[in-house]
Specification:
alpha/beta, Rossmann fold, seven-stranded mixed sheet, three-stranded antiparallel sheet, 10 helices, 35% helix, 23% strand, globular
């Protein structure tokens, strides 16, 4: 999907040849952070060190989606994972808020809930406590074991349209499909959104949560740029990909995750749009969140901040920066 090869080999990466969303041929470079090892590439003395991969941020000339220009083998990044949601107190507390908000929107007892990228099941446990039937999907086999041991049914696999069809045959359609902090990680995003469309009941609701591009841009969250995050999604780019599969946004909340995220609610039918959704769209338009000029400015400010920080670190260490 927009890469130069059809398959990955272990520890390899691919450079995209077109936009991951609209397939436009030109994705402009906006920030080059050099070659870096993929995130969480931890190793012990005596092990082979991880390969270095270019970390370059680009913008699609056509749809404006902000995205990485390289894709690391997803199996290398996600098949064995080190992050457990339950280790973050904020996330555990927020899971209860998230489930309460979903209940207010759906207003139905005994929901069937599917979470894509469910990690250790922390958020699905909150739905279980409210009497809902849950199923998680997560590619990390080690974390799937943790979730299942805690009583959260979990499929250890990469979510896709093909897997969604299989799950629907086994369990039927779902009232609620959740994708929290997962859409920015997905190379084949079309297959994932198509899978969500396939899994969701005709009257159901899909909830997408993602780190806000406007905050990344305005607050210089350049530390959130790493190989797991293939996109810096805005509300605009999320609505763009969702609309291609018949999903229409109707509500929006904010969350504390990742330094500030949007939680957007989608359905197949047209529903009254909340003021929070309308206001978020208007603000993104005001600041031109996906424009080339905005991200070139972000790049300049990030480089300036990086240089100042490096200078401070070396000065404190009584060394001259290289």
């Amino acid at each position: 999907m927009g890469t130069s090869k059809s398959e990955f080999k272990l520890h390899e990466f691919e450079t995209i040849v077109c936009c991951r969303i609209c397939r436009h041929a030109k994705v402009q470079l906006v920030l080059d952070l050099g070659e870096q090892p993929p995130a969480n590439s931890l190793y012990k003395d005596g092990d082979n060190p991880p390969s270095f991969v270019p970390l370059r941020l680009g913008r699609c000339e056509s749809c404006g989606t902000i995205q990485l220009l390289e894709t690391v083998n997803p199996g290398q990044l996600f098949s064995k994972y080190v992050w457990l949601t339950q280790t973050a107190k904020t996330a555990v507390q927020y899971a209860e808020v998230f489930a309460d908000r979903a209940d207010l929107v759906l207003r139905k007892k005994g929901l069937s809930v599917l979470e894509v990228g469910s990690n250790d099941g922390t958020f699905l446990k909150a739905f279980q406590r409210r009497g809902h039937k849950v199923l998680g999907v997560d590619p990390a086999s080690n974390i799937g074991e943790v979730a299942r041991a805690a009583g959260v049914p979990t499929v250890s696999d990469f979510f896709s349209a093909e897997l969604a069809s299989k799950l629907v045959k086994e369990s039927g359609k779902f009232d609620l499909v959740i994708a929290r902090n997962v859409l920015p990680h997905v190379a084949d995003l079309h297959s994932v959104i198509d899978g969500i469309r396939e899994a969701l009941s005709i009257s159901g609701v899909a909830i997408f949560e993602f780190h806000r591009a406007d905050l990344i841009m305005e607050e210089l969250h350049y530390d959130s740029i790493y190989h797991e995050h293939l996109y810096l999604h805005s509300l605009q780019s999320i609505e763009n990909i969702a609309s291609r599969y018949g999903l229409k946004a109707f509500d929006l909340n904010e969350s504390p995750i990742s330094g500030g995220s949007f939680v957007v609610y989608f359905a197949f039918d047209s529903r009254d749009e909340s003021q929070s959704l309308i206001a978020a769209r208007a603000y993104e338009e005001k600041i031109q969140v996906n424009s080339l000029k905005s991200w070139q400015n972000f790049s300049d400010l990030s480089r300036e901040h990086i240089a100042k920080f490096r200078s401070l670190v070396f000065r404190l260490g009584s060394r001259q920066p290289p």
